[in-house]
């Protein structure tokens, strides 16, 4: 991400690495808290399914939901993907699309294949159960891999099996990666209309949320990242001008970002009918977009995202995202008679260690392989042209 940003003249993308790391940690917290049946009931019911202790109630139905807003963190990943994949295209005249496709697919599918095999191994070694005592989220995880489920998880584009639930987002990552030239063809012309087009993208997400049409909901989120890349310098200039001399400006932006990102849960807590609140989930899109902008241009948040810890989290974020959930579930089944806190205490450190190893031994190697594949395609193309 940082290299892509440098290539496009956007040197502050290092802070977005840290933001991505923070979002990955939020996803881990999200799945850890879903081990508690009461919070899993909140997540699936979207309402006060039962009386919660005050702090748990605040975690569920207030802006504090941000600390375990796993779904909204995935929206942030989608915006970042649109931004990061577009910047190198804009920076290089005559961008080599023939090299891009194999490079991108190796980069995505290599770690996914390894993660699926690891997840299948955890299911084999630690059998799963559908006992109601585990709560809704755990019970909804299938107990075994079938051949059909394995094919779904290894190919992604037709949907995933739910054995490793974070894989659902990779379906949309792959589709967006394949459709990136189409996004650019649609969004690069008529740049003066970008404000209207951003509003139209949010409107499409609203329609997708209202009609439960996943394509209409998810694919426009990537487009907002593409528009952000197209207007990067303009956004930076406007952010500097608008916040100059206004100490309250960035705090206000961050408050609005958090309120929008958690809007569905805040509204539920205020008594809004849960089905209506779920249809307002699209409000998280402008919220996570504001977080991306703030991480790039707000000095305080940028400094936080550039700390060593969040930079490390950003480096292992993809690996952590892929491997953590089967490990947490295995820890819960191994400690079934005890509180979910014990599963969290055991599972989270193991997941972090496995993620670090996975990043070094799997993800980084496929990243290097993807670069070699891209260079090989370019070299063959040059040879063919010279011949």
Q: What would a concise description of this structure say?
A:
The chain has 387 residues and is mainly α. It has helices at 2-7, 13-33, 37-45, 54-61, 70-91, 97-125, 136-139, 147-155, 168-187, 194-211, 214-230, 232-243, 249-261, 263-269, 274-279, 284-297, 299-305, 308-334, 340-386. It is globular, with a radius of gyration of 21 Å.
Distance N to C terminus: 35 Å
**Binned strand content:** under 5%
Largest sheet: none
Order of helices and strands: HHHHHHHHHHHHHHHHHHH
Could you please describe the fold and organization of this structure?
InterPro entries: Acyl_transf_3_dom (IPR002656), Acyltransferase_3 (IPR050879). This is Peptidoglycan/LPS O-acetylase OafA/YrhL. Keywords: Membrane, Transmembrane, Transmembrane helix. This protein is mainly alpha-helical and about 375 residues long. The protein has one domain (about 1-385). The protein has 19 helices and no strands. The protein has helices at about 1-5, 15-35, 35-45, 55-60, 70-90, 95-125, 135-140, 145-155, 170-185, 195-210, 215-230, 230-245, 250-260, 265-270, 275-280, 285-295, 300-305, 310-335, 340-385. It is globular. The protein starts with a helix and ends with a helix.
Walk me through the topology.
Blueprint: H1 2-7, H2 13-33, H3 37-45, H4 54-61, H5 70-91, H6 97-125, H7 136-139, H8 147-155, H9 168-187, H10 194-211, H11 214-230, H12 232-243, H13 249-261, H14 263-269, H15 274-279, H16 284-297, H17 299-305, H18 308-334, H19 340-386
Helix pairs in contact: 2-5, 2-17, 2-18, 5-9, 5-11, 5-16, 6-8, 6-9, 6-18, 6-19, 9-11, 10-11, 13-16, 16-17, 18-19
